[in-house]
Amino acid sequence: MPSSPTRLIAHLDMDAFYASVDLLRYPELRGRAVVIGGGRRHQPVMRADGRREFSALRDYTGRGVITTSTYEARALGVHSGMGVMKAAQLAPDAVLLPVDFDEYRKYSRLFKAAVRAVAPIVEDRGIDEIYVDLTDLPGALEDGGRAAGQALKDAVHAATGLTCSVGITPNKLLSKICSELDKPNGLTLLSFEDIPARIWPLAAKKINGIGPKATEKLAGFGIHTVGELAAADPAFLLANFGKSYGAWLTEAAHGRDERPVVTYSEPKSISRETTFERDLHAVRDRAVLSGIFTELCVQLAGDLARKGYASRTIGIKLRFDDFKSVTRDLSLPAHTLDARTIRHAAGTCLKRIDLTRRLRLLGVRAGALAKIADLVAPQGVHAETVTPLLAREKLGHDTLPLFRTAFDAEPRVPHT
DNA sequence: TCTGGGGTCCTAGGACCC
DNA sequence: TCTGGGGTCCTAGGACCC
Description:
Elements lengths: L8 E6 L2 H9 L8 E4 L7 E2 L5 E2 L1 E2 L9 E4 L1 H4 L9 H7 L4 E3 L3 H18 L3 E3 L4 E5 L6 H4 L2 H15 L3 E6 L2 H7 L8 E3 L5 H5 L12 H9 L5 H6 L2 H8 L1 H11 L16 E11 L5 H22 L1 E12 L4 E12 L2 H12 L8 E13 H5 L6 H13 L21
Parallel strand pairs: 2-7, 10-11
Antiparallel strand pairs: 1-9, 1-10, 2-6, 3-4, 5-7, 8-9, 12-15, 13-14, 13-15
Helix pairs in contact: 4-6, 11-12, 13-14
The protein binds a DNA duplex through helix 3, helix 9, strand 12 and strand 14.
C-alpha cells in the first residue's frame, strides 16, 4: 500500500513582529534595545524641535508584561512574557513602546495577503505566523521548496518592509521547529533523513506542545532532548503521560505529524478579561468592580455582534491575589448576544464563587457559539432584532434586576 | 514591585437518557 | 452482595500557544 506522497509545508514566522512594525514608524530606534508592552500608556511625545521623546523602561510602574522586544533587548535578557518591572531591572535604559494592535493587525493582513498571492493554502496561527502548504507549487518538490520559500520571504518583504523566518519540511511539527533554527531572516529546509542530526540534539521543549509542565516532568525521568524522548520506551511514555499525550510524545520525537494545513476554522469562544491596576475586594470595591463587570459584558456583546455570533454558554473567570484562577459557566436555554442577558448569566456564575480573597482579574467568556445567520435563517427573521432577545424571553428575565449580582448584593440602605 | 489578554484542546466526574 | 453499558451534555480545571 503506497504511503501518502511527501508533503512540503512551510512555517513562516515574522521576526520580532511588533517591535519590527514599530521600528518602521520610529526608524531612529533601530539598533537600540526596544521593548513593547505594558499597555497603552507611555506614548512617544513629539518635542518642539521635531524629535520624538520615548519612555525609558525604568520609568514604568504597573503590572504589564513584555509582548515583544528587539534582538538588542533580548541580548540583555529581556523576553516576552516577562513583567515589565522585572525587565526594567535588566535593561533600565531600553525604550518602552506601547502596544498598538491596530497597526500590528494592519501589517498582519499585508504579509498574509502577500503570502497568499504566492501560495494560496495558508493556515492562520495568530497575528505573526502561518503555515503554508507548498506541495502543489510547480517545482517545489524538486528543490525541497527552497525557491518557493525564498519567494515567500521576498513577497513579505516587498509588501511590508519586514523580514521573516521560514522553515520548510514534510510537516507542520518539523517546520515549526525549523523556522526558529536560523532566526532572524532565516530559510531552513529539512527532510526526514535530517532528523537525527538536526532535531534530536534539541531540547524537548522546542517541540510545539511540550510546555513547562511536560518539560519538568520529562526532566524528572532524565529526558531532556528530543533524541532522548525518541529513545524512550513508548509504553513508558503511555504509562506516565496518558494514552493520548503519551502516544503523541513518541510521534513528535520521531518527527511524525500528519495534520493538514487548515485554511479555515470557526471560532469556539470569544472572551474579554482585564487585570486591575490594584487588587480589588468584592465588598470594599463593589461599585468599581460592578462597573468593570458590566463593561466587560457590554464589550463582549459588541464583539459577538461585530463578528456575527451568538453564544449559549456564558462563563466568567476570576484570578485572586494569590494568582489562583477559577472559572464558572452557565449554559442558557437559547443563544444570545444581548449584553443584559450576558450580564445576568455572568452574575449568576459569580454567585457561585467565594469572594473572600481580593481579585486581580475578571473575565467574561462566550462559548458554544453559533453564527447568527444560521440561527435565524430558518425562520426567515431579521437577525439583529430577534436574536438578542431569544434567551431573555425564554428565561423570563425581563422583570428581573439584571444588573444585580454578588458584587452589589448588599442591601441598599438609603442614607439620611 | 513577579506573572497580559486572547484563544484551543483535553480530561474527568456527574447528570441524564435509552 | 451486587448492582449493564454506551452516548451526550454540562461544568471545572489545567496545559499549552501566540
